[in-house]
Specification:
Rossmann fold, 7-stranded parallel β-sheet, single chain, 295 residues, alpha/beta
Length: 295
């Protein structure tokens, strides 16, 4: 049986990137999907893709920063499919300049917009989904897309990093507050395999490809310990979201999974080069001679 057979899912930021990939995957696993996106027309196009593939979907424009829009999203889900089972709060925005601007040059307006989208947007989507789930009385599932930057900071992305760390806190708080109603809350924190559209203007064509897929793939030149012959994709992250949405994770709550990290979070660095093999040692060349001479 498909893993989400009969489930009704709403996904924010699903007009492109991971949200779109999750909409297509969830529908292929039996879910009825409501897609939503800030950019007019994108969510509707993804819904049409789902329907063309034999699924059930409805798309709508909605802004996660606006509470009335998140209330309207949940109501539209109930109006079209009779209920909601899963809310995937996926929408997010990057730092202005995409890592090129100094932290001390960041404007308050940009800081507030990043937090309104990446953190408050999760709260608003989950708040109105939780109200409906509590009213239904049958539990439910909340998912958030956070980021690897919530675990280790991305250089050049200070507000983004802070907002995503806050999102991890919302995951833990929601698990405690709404667990009594049978509602569980989890997140995924992607590292690799994320959408190149995130770095492009909102009006750019939806490419459906990860950063790694857009360049020649040489696993020996990537910043991860894991070496595989093909690059990480959006689907690699979507499968983690599918696990969190499905009953396979029914007793998980308050967790944030570092998805598609390629082993990055298995290591740390003091002065140790990151790509040494066993037997190469940990000292840089400029210190090795000093140590060997002293011995």
């Amino acid at each position: 049986m498909p893993r989400l057979q009969g489930k009704v899912v709403a996904i924010t930021g699903s007009g492109s990137g991971l949200g779109r990939e999750c909409a297509l995957l969830f529908a292929s696993e039996g879910a009825k999907v409501i897609t939503s996106d800030y950019v007019h027309g994108r969510a509707e196009r993804v819904a049409a893709e789902v329907v063309a593939a034999g699924g059930e979907a409805y798309g709508m424009q909605a802004d996660v920063r606006v509470e009335a829009d998140m209330e309207r999203l949940v109501q539209a889900t109930v109006d079209h499919f009779g209920r909601i089972d899963i809310m995937h709060a996926n929408a997010g925005v990057p730092e202005p300049g995409f890592g090129a601007n100094a932290f001390h040059e960041l404007s308050l307006d940009d800081w507030n917009n990043i937090f309104a989208t990446n953190l408050t947007g999760i709260f608003l989507a989950w708040k109105h989904a939780a109200r409906q789930l509590i009213a239904q009385g049958e539990g439910g599932t909340l998912i958030a897309t956070t980021s690897a930057s919530s675990l280790n900071a991305y250089p050049g992305f200070p507000a983004y990093t802070a907002s995503k760390a806050g999102a991890n806190g919302v995951v833990r708080a929601a698990a405690i507050e709404w667990g009594r109603y049978g509602i569980r809350a989890n997140g995924l924190a992607p590292t690799h395999g994320m959408s190149i559209n995130f770095a492009l203007p909102q009006e750019a064509a939806v490419l459906g490809l990860s950063y790694e897929q857009m360049a020649p793939w040489d696993p020996d030149k990537r910043a991860m310990p894991l070496r595989l012959g093909t690059p990480p994709t959006l689907l690699d992250n979507a499968y983690v979201a599918l696990f969190l949405a499905s009953d396979e994770s029914r007793y998980m709550s308050g967790q944030v999974l570092a998805s598609v990290d390629g082993g990055n979070f298995a290591r740390t660095s003091i002065i140790m080069p990151g790509d040494l093999g066993a037997g190469d040692g940990v000292l840089p060349d400029e210190l090795r001679d000093v140590v060997e001479g002293a011995s």
